[in-house]
């Protein structure tokens, strides 16, 4: 079994996150998502809009993730002790999109994983980001906001990827015949932990 690790803030859960989890899952058999806590994120980026519990609930609701854990340590800290000895037991490979990730000191966050040949990369979905979402909220009624910013298109190359389509079709209940169907509707705008909770309740 190939164990994949993906980590991040995952604030204001959006389609870019979902597709990142899907692409990471396709790289192995078991996907673990490491959720960075708010105090660590605030040091390097900004204070998350959603708290740790809310973001954790969102990840637990994603069908592509097999396990979610709170992770205070960097990949380097998880992989090596103070003497540089390999100590990681959580994953076989680290996965990330093809956009550069640099730490506060200018060093590649995944340098150790790359050196140990334990790094896998997938194509990042363009147009979706938490920063973009925040901008859309702030400029909601402003003429400054351009239409192509407001409705970012999901990369068709990923949606039309045969491997992705096959994987998606295999997840979830396969035999729906004679099963009770529950219908729930809503706008589900800025999908959040409350949405996940009500959908989980309806499913149960």
* Global geometry: globular
Task: Tell me the strand percentage band.
Answer: 5-15%
CATH superfamily of the largest domain, by name, is HUPs
Elements, N to C (H/E)? EHEHHEHEHEHHHHH
Strand order of the largest sheet: 3-2-1-4-5
Q: What's the total helix number?
A: 10
Helix- and strand-based class?
alpha/beta
- DSSP strand tally: 5
Domain Cytidyltransferase-like: 6-134
Keywords: Lipid biosynthesis, Lipid metabolism, Nucleotidyltransferase, Phospholipid biosynthesis, Phospholipid metabolism, Transferase
Pathway: Lipid metabolism; Phospholipid metabolism; phosphatidylethanolamine biosynthesis; phosphatidylethanolamine from ethanolamine: step 2/3
EC number: 2.7.7.14
Keywords:
ethanolamine-phosphate cytidylyltransferase; Rossmann fold; alpha/beta; globular; five-stranded parallel sheet; 2 domains; EC 2.7.7.14
Quick structural summary:
This protein has 204 residues and is α/β, with parallel strands linked by helices. It has helices spanning 15-25, 38-44, 52-60, 75-79, 111-115, 130-138, 147-150, 156-159, 162-170, 193-203, and strands at residues 3-8, 30-35, 67-70, 93-97, 119-122. One of its GO terms (molecular function) is ethanolamine-phosphate cytidylyltransferase activity.
Q: Can you characterise this structure?
A:
The longest helix is centred in the N-terminal third of the chain and has 11 residues, at 15-25. α3 packs parallel to α10 (193-203). Helix content is 36%, strand content 12%. The protein is globular, with a radius of gyration of 18 Å. The two termini are 30 Å apart. It has two domains: 3-122, Rossmann fold, CATH 3.40.50; 128-172, no CATH class. The model has no long low-confidence stretch (mean pLDDT 81). The protein has helices spanning 15-25, 38-44, 52-60, 75-79, 111-115, 130-138, 147-150, 156-159, 162-170, 193-203; strands at residues 3-8, 30-35, 67-70, 93-97, 119-122. The chain is built from ten helices and five strands, in the order βαβααβαβαβααααα. A five-stranded parallel sheet has the order 3-2-1-4-5. It is of the alpha/beta class and 204 residues long.
